[in-house]
């Protein structure tokens, strides 16, 4: 059956669409003719696409696009690795470890002297606290040394503002951990001593709590500034802080902790019967004032807020291990 031509298209079913003048479409249905006509319209430009030159247009567009200036503050810059020679590394390791050895010997000498104090003779639970407090100092301050040494090796302490934020956040973080851990140590020491002696002395328990809290926070505070100074100096002289900060923290920390504990415990022992309220004031200041304030500061610090949440399990586990050593020391 032959398709009718456009002259006999009475109802408009067959037509020449879009005004395209071509005889080949005159006999097709209108929908199909529309499609074919549109194809004829775009077929010729497509053939010539390869012959077009867009280089001038691209240059014109690129000239009109405004590229924002490069912001160097948003570029992460990593410091170039420092080449460490064998003799330099050996010297950095040998001297701090010699200091650490002398510090351990000095801690033993100090412990031999404080055994003659009245408070150590009357309050036997102090012996249970000694290894735990020394171990607590080591755990907290050596973790601080590791964190700051890592930041120093990354070059983050070169900015004074960022270095100040690290110092504030890490010092208050250590203080929080010291308060909580010292309270746990005192409870452990009081409980163990009460079980072994068969009696519970309230004034002695408050004495242990106040002495352990004050000792832990004060000794950590002193050691924190020593470590910060060591890390800052080693960075300035282009030495590796990891080789020096941790051994120094382990060396002088034992001596400092024993001296602070013996001094504070002796003073509080003289007043714990006549001025018991002083012990409660000390505990209240630490637990009700300092602890919430320092938690608020640390939670807003980007360098320490994650450690505040996730860093408790190792610290508490180490406390109970050190407390076992205190039981052995008390029974010796």
TrEMBL record:
Keyword Transmembrane: yes
GO molecular-function terms, A-Z: monoatomic cation transmembrane transporter activity
Membrane disposition: Multi-pass membrane protein
GO cellular component term of the entry, any: plasma membrane
Ranges where the SLC41A/MgtE integral membrane domain occurs: 130-263
Pfam families in UniProt: MgtE
Compartments where located: Membrane
Protein name: SLC41A/MgtE integral membrane domain-containing protein
């Amino acid at each position: 059956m032959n398709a009718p031509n456009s002259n006999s298209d009475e109802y408009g079913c067959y037509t020449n669409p879009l005004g395209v003048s071509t005889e080949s479409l005159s006999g097709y249905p209108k929908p199909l003719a529309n499609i074919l006509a549109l194809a004829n319209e775009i077929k010729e430009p497509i053939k010539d696409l390869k012959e077009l030159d867009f280089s001038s247009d691209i240059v014109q567009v690129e000239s009109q696009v405004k590229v924002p200036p490069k912001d160097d503050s948003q570029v992460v810059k990593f410091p170039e690795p420092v080449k460490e020679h064998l003799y330099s590394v050996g010297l950095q390791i040998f001297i701090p470890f010699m200091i650490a050895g002398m510090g351990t010997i000095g801690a033993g000498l100090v412990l031999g002297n404080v055994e003659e104090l009245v408070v150590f003779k009357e309050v036997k639970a102090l012996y249970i606290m000694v290894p735990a407090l020394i171990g607590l100092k080591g755990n907290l301050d050596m973790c601080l040394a590791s964190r700051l040494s890592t930041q120093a090796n990354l070059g983050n302490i070169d900015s004074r503002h960022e270095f100040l934020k690290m110092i504030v956040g890490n010092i208050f973080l250590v203080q929080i951990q010291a308060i909580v851990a010292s309270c746990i140590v005192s409870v452990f020491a009081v409980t163990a001593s009460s079980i072994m002696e068969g009696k519970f002395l309230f004034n002695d328990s408050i004495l242990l709590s106040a002495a352990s809290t004050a000792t832990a926070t004060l000794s950590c505070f002193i050691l924190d500034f020593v470590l910060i100074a060591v890390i800052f100096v080693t960075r300035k002289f282009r030495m590796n802080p990891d080789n020096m900060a941790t051994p120094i923290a382990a060396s002088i920390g034992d001596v400092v902790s024993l001296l602070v504990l013996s001094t504070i415990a002796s003073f509080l022992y003289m007043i714990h019967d006549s001025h018991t309220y002083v012990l409660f004031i000390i505990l209240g200041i630490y637990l009700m004032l300092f602890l919430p304030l320092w938690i608020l500061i640390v939670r807003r610090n980007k360098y320490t807020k994650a450690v505040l949440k996730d860093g408790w399990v190792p610290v508490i586990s180490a406390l109970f291990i050190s407390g076992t050593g205190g039981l052995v020391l008390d029974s010796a």
